[in-house]
UniProtKB/TrEMBL annotation:
It is found in: Membrane. This is Ig-like domain-containing protein. It is a single-pass membrane protein. Residues 101-121 are annotated as: Disordered.
Length: 624
């Protein structure tokens, strides 16, 4: 890029020809390019990056606009004698990143010194617009230390071992629009830190040791902020509601590396209502934070990459109807449910690269035709009819990241979805249950029973069992209450598709159905269970308690009930008889009782372990 002066020189002084031009381009005597550096007179740039310098080299041409001293060994900014003021006056960009600077001069009282003092070194930079001091050894920034750099627009102080940022550290930087600060040690932010920065638009804070998110109050002076990045707040567990409330102009919010943050509560993002881009990455969110998203109707881009999110459920994104892009890379995602992006009219980019997805349902989208870009690579994709839509639309899709390729079926392993599919690929075959001869089992009450069911198909079918009342068995218990109905709660699906009922009851008898389902269709087989009830003698003897026993909450069968009651009453009457005889004997000995008020409480604690014994029934007798 030619500077304005250079361009004018060329246009105006054309007739003066080569000689002058040569003079302009050749380094001026005395202001030649410092030997270890490279200079570009065109854009007045001096580049001395990575030269092992321990001090600013002598001979930097006066009028230099950009000075790159990055990746050297400078401990402080010290201008070589003589070249100081002429170099500084027109300097616009100074890059000191990746050095060993450990201290900046104090803020007050040193402005006037112009010599080799640090304080002097940082003055006279009246044109400096961009300063990079990231990746240094700064441990302390005194309030107002940089205040004399009144023209500064961009300041990079990231990756410094600063433990704290005190109030008013950046006072005086009234034109500062962009600030990056912090490091892994940063553990304290002064409550008035952000005052005096009216022009700040972009703020990045890395706070590896901060115990809590910045308070809403401290963010109040940043009403004009449009982008906020809070990085590496690994100790912070929650984001209090309304934290970003004062940031009315915020359009971009990035929370990255909050490895203890496992939820975005409702209201935690309340405030900046026109947030367009939200990125919550490398945190500990285990699901799409739909509650936190409730207050973000304008959101267009969402990135939740590298969170342990296993499923994108239907409806989780219903509050962000304007969403266009979702990125969920490297999250361990196992499934995207149908209808996951249903309400999203403008949805056009999905990046789920590097997950554990076997498929991606076309029905997840309101219309797959609206999808422009898809990242699906590095997933163990099962290439059957469910993914055919991707192969079919491949020419109208832009694939992000590595090309998606099939993991299964074996015959098509490695087949790429962005290439024309060979014949016979992306097919499903309807499940076929292997042995469909009806099973008939007759089992003694209280015994376990196992039905078998196995099926082939592509993709491998899911197997489910229905009991005689057509209720689904073997599914996780839906609530805290025990299930009732044949075999509910006592049954378990076996890994090979079979069904086990731990201890059958008479009411379990009937026809059970095994259903094998996949995207290609379903197949069913049936099994009949007959239950041989226990004889009264068998019921009378001690029956093993535990798994096979009657658990609270199940209906007793009539026999058990009958025996329990009979035995209960028998023992009750015998005890009452004994009591009355005792009383009678006693009263005869003592003479008549005036107020004989006798209360007998009978509390049978039967029910539990196997029912009919009556031994553990308790009798309480109160006499008043
Ligand atoms: C200056 O110009 C050179 C060569 O044209 C280029 O490599 C360099 O990046 C430029 N520097 C800046 C700061 O524009
Ligand atoms: C926001 O910016 C405007 C000008 O763009 C300025 O007048 C105002 O003071 C700023 N607000 C704050 C809180 O800094
Ligand atoms: C992340 O969340 C899981 C539970 O969801 C928890 O066990 C784990 O300790 C959390 N990790 C951190 C770093 O807080
Ligand atoms: C099995 O497929 C038939 C159609 O072929 C369908 O009507 C039925 O609902 C399916 N059953 C299950 C349990 O999916």
């Amino acid at each position: 890029m030619l500077s304005g002066a250079g361009a004018r020189a060329r246009a105006g002084w054309q007739p003066l020809s080569l000689l002058l031009l040569l003079l302009l381009v050749l380094p001026e005597p005395g202001l030649s390019c410092p030997s270890p550096c490279r200079c570009w007179p065109d854009n007045r740039t001096v580049e001395c990056s990575g030269r092992g310098l321990e001090s600013v080299p002598a001979g930097i041409p006066g009028g230099t606009r950009v000075l790159d001293l990055s990746r050297n060994r400078l401990r402080r900014l010290e201008w070589p004698r003589g070249s100081g003021p002429t170099v500084r006056r027109r300097l616009e960009e100074l890059d000191l990143s990746g050095n060993l600077v450990s201290e900046l001069p104090g803020g007050e009282g040193e402005e006037e010194e112009e010599e080799a003092e640090d304080g002097g070194a940082w003055s006279g930079l009246g044109q400096l617009r961009r300063l990079r001091l990231d990746r240094n050894r700064l441990r302390y920034l005194s309030p107002g230390a940089l205040g004399r750099l009144a023209a500064l627009e961009s300041l990079e102080l990231g990756s410094n071992p600063l433990p704290a940022l005190l109030d008013l550290t950046f006072r005086g930087l009234r034109r500062l629009g962009r600030l990056e600060v912090g490091g892994p040690q940063l553990g304290y932010l002064g409550p008035r830190l952000w005052e005096g920065l009216p022009a700040l638009r972009l703020l990045t804070v890395t706070g590896g040791s901060l115990p809590a998110a910045p308070s809403a109050l401290s963010l109040q002076p940043l009403a004009n902020l449009s982008a906020l990045r809070l990085l590496g707040l690994a100790r912070v567990r929650r984001l209090p509601a309304g934290t970003f409330g004062p940031l009315a102009a915020l359009r971009l919010l990035q929370l990255d590396g909050w490895s203890s943050l496992s939820e975005l509560e409702e209201g935690s993002l309340r405030g900046p209502e026109l947030l367009l881009r939200l990125s919550v990455t490398r945190c500990n969110l285990s699901s799409v934070p739909y509650r936190g998203l409730q207050s973000q109707p304008a959101l267009r881009w969402l990135d939740l990459s590298h969170n342990p999110i296993r499923v994108i459920r239907a409806g989780m994104l219903r509050h962000v109807t304007r969403l266009e892009e979702l990125r969920l890379v490297g999250a361990g995602l196992l499934a995207v449910q149908p209808e996951a992006f249903r309400g999203l009219l403008y949805f056009r980019l999905l990046d789920v690269t590097s997950n554990q997805l076997r498929s991606l349902p076309e029905k997840a989208f309101r219309s797959a035709a609206g999808l422009h870009s898809l990242g699906l690579g590095d997933n163990p994709l099962a290439c059957d009819c469910r993914l055919h839509w991707v192969a079919r639309r491949r020419r109208r899709l832009r694939f992000l990241g590595p090309a998606p390729a099939c993991r299964t079926p074996e015959a098509h392993r490695g087949l790429r979805l962005d290439r024309p599919p060979p014949p016979g690929s992306f097919l499903c075959s309807r499940p076929r249950i292997r042995d469909k001869r009806p099973q008939r089992l007759s089992v003694r009450e209280g015994r376990p029973v196992t039905f078998r069911c196995s099926a082939d198909g592509n993709p491998p079918p899911d197997i489910l069992w229905l009991n005689p009342r057509r209720q689904r068995l073997g599914a996780p218990t839906p609530g805290p209450f025990p299930l009732s109905g044949p075999a509910l709660g006592r049954s378990r699906l076996l890994p090979d598709g079979g069904l086990e009922i731990a201890s059958v009851r008479p009411q379990d008898a009937g026809i059970y159905r095994c259903v094998a389902r996949n995207a290609g269709g379903n197949d069913t087989a049936s099994a009949t269970l007959r239950v041989r009830p226990l004889s009264p003698q068998e019921l009378g003897v001690f029956r093993p308690a535990g798994r096979g026993g009657v658990r609270p909450g199940y209906p007793f069968d009539t026999q058990t009930l009958l025996v329990t009651t009979t035995m209960g009453f028998a023992s009750f009457f015998s005890v009452v008889t004994v009591c009355f005889s005792l009383l009678f004997a006693w009263s005869r000995a003592k003479g008549p009782i005036k107020h004989n008020n006798i209360q007998v409480d009978f509390v049978p604690h039967g029910g539990g372990g196997g029912g009919g014994e009556g031994e553990d029934a308790k009798y309480n007798m109160k006499m008043v």
